[in-house]
Design a protein that fits this description.
Number of domains: 1
Radius of gyration: 26 Å
Strand order of the largest sheet: 1-6-7-12-13-17
Length: about 190
């Protein structure tokens, strides 16, 4: 089990060394009014919540029937949710008072602070059943693996771009692979 949080504060560095941001404008949307305003320290101070993950592994041999059983359980935080809005130069120029630097056609504006929101937790259980057989000096083990045995369908990646035509914000782009059965054999001689 592990848990922790991160805290990042770059506000003083950005204030004293604005040239470190060369090549792009740092913008944010004003949530109370329509339009875009320039802020030099947008999201320069970020703190994530405690992100706890749990991973368990266990194995047991059933002596009477000679089967070995193993299980792995994972419970980890879901994907970070971002909301990135692509603002065109025409939308930004009136409030900025000039075109975007470097002739850029648009700029990506973060609507949420990094680490502010996370998707649902990802929980998965993998199982293995093994049966060893001995023939003289050789040993054969037959395995049955069941990955994602509960057939969880947690989202692992989301669309982070807000306002894109045709694709909804937070639309899943990847989920945990479906339940999978695998039979394998190991020969020792």
């Amino acid at each position: 089990m592990s848990s922790g949080k991160t805290f990042t504060d770059k506000c003083e560095v950005q204030a004293k060394l604005p040239e470190l941001q060369v090549g792009y404008e740092t913008l944010s949307l004003n949530r109370d009014a329509v339009g875009i305003g320039v802020t030099n320290n947008a999201f320069c101070r970020n703190e994530t919540p405690f992100l706890t993950q749990l991973k368990l592994l266990g194995a047991y041999s059933i002596p009477r029937i000679g089967i070995q059983f193993a299980a792995t359980y994972q419970d980890v935080p879901g994907p970070e949710i971002l909301a990135n809005y692509t603002a065109s130069n025409a939308l930004v120029q009136p409030s900025l008072g000039r075109p975007l630097s470097g002739g850029a056609a648009n700029v990506t504006v973060p609507l949420l602070a990094p680490g502010e929101l996370y998707g649902p937790r990802e929980r998965m259980l993998d199982l293995r059943f093994s049966r060893p057989f001995k023939y003289g000096r050789t040993r054969t083990t037959i395995n049955l693996d069941i990955y994602n045995s509960l057939n969880a369908n947690a989202v692992t990646f989301l669309n982070q771009n807000y306002g894109v035509t045709g694709v909804g914000w937070q639309a899943p782009t990847a989920i945990i692979d479906a339940r999978l059965f695998k039979i394998s054999a190991q020969f020792e001689f």
